[in-house]
Amino acid sequence: MQWGILALNSLLSVGGVSSDPRITEESIFWGNRNIIQTSDIAGGNIETIVSTGLNTPADIEVDPLALKIYWSDLGNRRIKRANFDGSNIEELVPIGIITGPIGLALDVGREKMYWADRGGSRIQRANLDGSSIETIVDASSIGGTYRVCLDPDREHIYWTTNGSTSGRVWRANLEGDEVTLITQIDRGVTGLALDLENDRMFIGDDFSNVWSTGLDGSNSRVEFQLPESSRVLDIEWESSLNYMYIADNSATRIWRARSDGSELSAIVDLADPPPWNLLGLAVYVPEPAPVIVVVLMLFWRHTFNRRIN
Questions:
Q1: How many CB atoms lie within 10 A of CB 177?
Q2: What distance in Å separates the CA atoms of residue 256 and residue 264, rounded to the nearest whole number?
Q3: pTM value > 0.90
Q4: What are residue 164's phi and psi, to 5 degrees?
Q5: Nearby residues of 61 by Cβ (< 8 Å), 6 or more positions away
Q6: At residue 18, what are phi and psi to the nearest 5 degrees?
Q7: How far is CA 42 from each of CA 62, 231, 249, rounded to the nearest angstrom?
Q8: Contact, 56 vs 74, CB < 8 A?
Q9: Residue-wise pLDDT tens digits, 71-95
Q10: Would you report the helix, strand and coil content of the chain in percent, each value rounded to 5?
Q11: Each residue of 238-281: pLDDT tens digit?
Q12: What is the CA 18 to chain-centroid distance, rounded?
């Protein structure tokens, strides 16, 4: 479990082994033109963690168990991963396998990753190490693919198609069967996030609107709007914090808001030169360790300190 990794990280820190503080801190990761950056959950302490070998990191995902970030590199047509501090970069899906990866989603429990290959109009998946690549949905006849989200418990995958005048959200099971149109709006769809606890999804359109709808497509409506000149490019819903995080590609900001748009605020503003291109984002929230783990950690710390004194 994640708490075991967090506990181990704390123990290693006491023993003098270097560790990344991001492991125990709430963080945001995002793609920004040709770099990947991170901040604390309030948008402070911005740091560039990957600055070479990138060409449009279109989506970012977090593996909270292995403590890795994954990203789809649209321009270089690859999928890679690294540690939270950007070290130990691994190429998982090489050029030649995919032609235009954008949306990315992880099913950590089943050790699978899924992605939208916009250039190939398909949904593909592989093991988390990039092995066993397979196409599960050929979307060439239904408008292609853009963003993807997973509902692991119900074994569903959702994805968007982004047309110039309309956008759609589709659903299938994790094998790619039972493809179903869930909803359609009269704008291009660029962002998608699931609130599984409340059986709803959030959709960002090509302008500045955030929509909400049931997971079955019912009760579709515009929930709120970002300020004029904004463009929603990606949405993350973090249920433990009861906030959504929005990548605004036009104003180059990251917004935070409640599900109804209240408490809307720009927590990251990248509007200053050089020119930016804010893309996908991911939020990491560590789980608290159970009491027994905390007790063991304190006991180990006390024992360690007695030995060195």
A1: 9
A2: 6
A3: no
A4: -75, -25
A5: 69, 70, 71, 104, 105, 106, 113, 282
A6: -60, 140
A7: 18, 21, 19
A8: yes
A9: 999 999 999 999 999 999 999 999 9
A10: 15, 45, 40
A11: 999 999 999 999 889 999 999 999 999 999 999 765 566 889 99
A12: 27
